[in-house]
Amino acid sequence: TTVNMAHLFKVDRVRLLCSCGVLKPITAIYFCRHCLKLRCGNCVSHEVDTLFCPNCLENMPSTEARLKKNRCANCFDCPSCSHTLSTRATSIQAPSPDDPAKTVARKVYYLACTSCRWTSRDVGLKDQTVATGGWAEQDNEHYKFLQSLLEHYRSVAQQEKLDRERKRFSHRKSAYLSLTDKYSLPSLLGRKSLTPLSPYSPKGDSGQASEMTPSEAVSEVSGLPDNIFTDELVLSSVTNMVQRMASPEWQPEMTSDLYPLHKHILVKRSLRCRHCEHNLSKPEYNPSSIKFKIQLGA
C-alpha cells in the first residue's frame, strides 16, 4: 500500500507524447476538441484573465496593478520569513483629549508574523489607529534618479516613434510638396504640412531625448569603520541573500532594517490553442473559486 501511494504522486512516471513531439505528464497535457490533437504548455497561448491578491482576494484592474508594481496595497509579507503578516490589536494608555492630565485606553494596531514572531515594532513603525492600513512607506534615496531615467527612456521611445511616423509619411509629404511647387501655393501651407503629427509635440518641437549624465566609476572607495575589527559579530543580526533580494531597492544588511513587504498579486490565466485559437482552459472570474468554465484536460 505504501508503494502504491508513493507511485500515486509520481505523475512523471507516465508521459504522453504531445503533437509537438515533447513528452509531458498527463497533468500538463490538454486535448483540443477542434484540432483533435494533444497540446502542451508550449502549444498554447497564455492570456491573463484576472489579477487578484491571494490574501484578501480582491480583484485589481491591470492599470492599477501596473501603478502599484503588481503588489497589494493592504496586505504585507514578513520580511524575515516571507510569511503573511496579520494585524494585531492592543490597548495603550494615551492622554485624554478632554483632560490631558488623565489617561484613557486607546486601541492601536500593528503587524505581526505568526511564524517567526517578527513585528512592525521591531523597526520602529508607529502603531495605527485603524486596521486597514496607513503604514509608513520606506523612502528610497535613489527615487529621483530612477524617475529621471524613466523620463529619459520615455523620451527616447517617443523620439523613435516620431522617426517611424516621419518615414511612413515621407512619400506623402514629398508628393504634396511637388503639388505646391507645381501650382505655386503659398509656402506657408507647405510649412504647416511639415509640423509633427504627434500629440506629444504640439508646438513643433523636435521631441529629442533629454541628455543624461553618465555614471562614472570612482577609483577610491570609503574605508571600513574602525569598530568592525573589535565588535563581536552576531550572525543572527545580519540578513541573508533571500531577505536582501526581497527588497531590491534597499537591500538591507541588518535585520533591524527589514520593513514589511507588500504582497505580490497573482493572476488567473486562460489557455488558448495556437492553431485554432479555441479555449482549452478558462477559470472562473471569482478569485475564491477553484472551478473552471472550460477545462479540456487529456
Automatic annotation (TrEMBL):
Its main location: cytoplasm. The lineage of its organism: Eukaryota, Metazoa, Ecdysozoa, Arthropoda, Crustacea. It is found in: Cytoplasm, Cell cortex; Cytoplasm, Cytoskeleton, Microtubule organizing center, Centrosome; Cytoplasm, Cytoskeleton, Stress fiber; Cytoplasm, Myofibril. Belongs to the dynactin subunit 4 family. GO terms for cellular component: cell cortex; centrosome; dynactin complex; myofibril; stress fiber. Subunit of dynactin, a multiprotein complex part of a tripartite complex with dynein and a adapter, such as BICDL1, BICD2 or HOOK3. The dynactin complex is built around ACTR1A/ACTB filament and consists of an actin-related filament composed of a shoulder domain, a pointed end and a barbed end. Its length is defined by its flexible shoulder domain. The soulder is composed of 2 DCTN1 subunits, 4 DCTN2 and 2 DCTN3. The 4 DCNT2 (via N-terminus) bind the ACTR1A filament and act as molecular rulers to determine the length. The pointed end is important for binding dynein-dynactin cargo adapters. It comes from the Eukaryota. This is Dynactin subunit 4. Keywords: Acetylation, Coiled coil, Cytoplasm, Cytoskeleton, Isopeptide bond, Phosphoprotein, Ubl conjugation. The keyword Ligase does not apply. PANTHER family: DYNACTIN P62 SUBUNIT (PTHR13034), DYNACTIN SUBUNIT 4 (PTHR13034:SF2). Signal peptide: none annotated. Residues 196-221 are annotated as: Disordered. InterPro entries: DCTN4.
